[in-house]
Amino acid sequence: MKNSQLLKIAEDFGSPVYIYDSEIITTQYQRLMSAFNKVKRVKINYAVKALSNISILKLMHTLGAGLDTVSIQEVKLGLAAGFPAESIIYTPNGVSLEEIETVAALGCRINIDNLSILEQFGTKHPHVPVCIRINPHVMAGGHTNISVGHIDSKFGISIHQIPHILRIVENTNMTINGIHMHTGSDILDIDVFLYASEILFETAKNFKNLDFMDFGSGFKVPYKSDDIETNIEEFGEKLSERFNTFCKTYGKELTIAFEPGKFLVSAAGQFLAKVNVVKQTTSTVFAQIDSGFNHLIRPMLYGSQHDIQNISNPTGRERFYTVVGYICETDTFANNRRIAEINEGDLLAFKNAGAYCFSMASNYNSRYRPAEVMWHNGKAHLIRKREIFDDILRNQIEIDILPQKKSIKAQVHM
Questions:
Q1: Which residue(s) pair with 287 in the sheet?
Q2: Which residues form the Orn/DAP/Arg decarboxylase 2 C-terminal domain (predicted)?
Q3: Calpha distance 185→216 (Å, rounded)
Q4: Which residue in 280, 295, 367, 273 sits closest to 9, CA to CA?
Q5: Which CATH superfamily does the domain covering 269-388 fall into?
Q6: Residue 236: CA atoms inside 13 Å, Cβ hemisphere, count?
Q7: At what angle do helices 232-250 and 190-204 cross, to 10 degrees?
Q8: DSSP state at residue 255
Q9: Which of 108, 131, 247, 328 is catalytic?
Q10: CB 3.0 to 4.6 Å from 312: which of 4, 120, 346, 391, for a disulfide?
């Protein structure tokens, strides 16, 4: 998108504001499908947690994607967006058996990641096929908070507990129709991914009624112009060859599945914020914006770097700025970053703001969450209104907690 278009969106819908380019999402989806075009059955299940606006989900539906969900609320969003239940896979962690049963009753595919729930569910619902999430004990990912396949992770059933799984399956006579893993996010080294995949192939041999194998996601996307990313084409070629070989050995054509979130929507998103104050201290020049980690927490939570451009003065002389928010705690988006000269009132564009940005926003400091806009077919469409004060009070219930005044008569006798 051009700077002039971004500026017009900020003018029309205010700032801060999130903007998503549907064309980029479409390109990323097609790129991933193309990487696995040598596999007969491929299914891309978009990870709803990355960006859950219903308009984004409807776009994914038109592309042919399924959904990867982690809560019953995400399941209901998918159904509301028009997805058939069978195209939604539900992969929770630590939820109640009751929630899993409710989702199963809706007709969605179930993915279970612990022995206790597997046994309980299999005992009560042996005729409902389930997928099993395996923990391959592989350390992968760009940050400890997003590495979920290592030995100390709360996610998945350990590969060393396969005998326990088989005992439960035999005792309950349940059907395992899928096998799944997810090792982490921002994985750059495809050899690590391929190594974990071999563990999944070996595990799959224990189950004779599989329909699909889900290899998760976590592909690294570039966050700046000279950044590196997962070579998805090379990865697709290597894993496709290995997957096709496995299917021949297994004696059945299985579906290869992935659950990308960031890969599909990260680069499609931009976050615009206005500079309220340019503050010079004895050592630093701060650009203080009309936002904070209540709107974009990734730099503070994950140490992620988002490219920041001054779209009001893109050709200005570059200077060094520390970009911070208006929250009552430290909320630094960038330290000592080279940005075209910033003046108060300028608009800054944060790149790669499509994944885990708005979806992790909050009302901290009682601030409003921003609007969301989709750039689709050359036009800006408002897909979420900016919150107002009524939204802050909604669902709050006031009670009468003022102290009762004592009567004058009672005060006289005190």
A1: 278, 323
A2: 21-354
A3: 10
A4: 273
A5: Lyase, Ornithine Decarboxylase; Chain A, domain 1 (2.40.37.10)
A6: 16
A7: 10
A8: E
A9: 328
A10: 346
| Count of beta carbons in the 10 Å neighbourhood of residue 295 | 28
Q: Cα 61 to chain center, whole Å?
A: 17
In angstroms, the CA 260 to CA 217 distance is: 5
Is 357 one of the catalytic residues? no
Q: What is 22-265's CATH superfamily? A: Alanine racemase (3.20.20.10)
d(CA 50, CA 223) in angstroms, rounded, equals 16
Closest CA to 111 of 124, 125, 100: 100
What is the number of other CB atoms lying within 10 angstroms of the CB of residue 321? 25
155 three-state secondary structure = coil
CB 152 within 8 A of CB 198: no
Going through 199-342 in order, the beta strands assigned E by DSSP cover 212-214, 255-258, 269-280, 285-289, 308-310, 318-324, 332-340
Binding residues for substrate: 298, 302, 329, 356
| C-beta atoms surrounding 292 within 10 Å | 25
pLDDT tens-digit series, residues 55-102: 999 999 999 999 999 999 999 999 999 999 999 999 999 999 999 999
Q: Taking the CA of residue 343 as centre, how many other CA atoms within 13 Å lie in the half-sphere pointing to its CB?
A: 5
What span, in angstroms and rounded, lies between the C-alpha atoms of 403 and 298? 44
> Which residues lie below 8 Å from residue 54, measured CB to CB, with a gap of 6+?
77, 80, 81, 383
Strands 109-112 and 66-69: unpaired
Q: Note the pLDDT of residue 410.
A: 53
The pTM (predicted TM-score) of the whole model is 0.91
* In contact, 201 and 134? CB cutoff 8 Å: no
The pLDDT assigned to 227 comes to 83
Query: Quick one: tokens of 317?
Result: 């002389």
- Which segment of 122-126, 139-143, 236-240 scores lowest on mean pLDDT? 139-143
Distance in angstroms (rounded) separating the CA atoms of residues 66 and 43: 7
Q: Which residues are annotated as a binding site?
A: 218, 298, 302, 329, 356
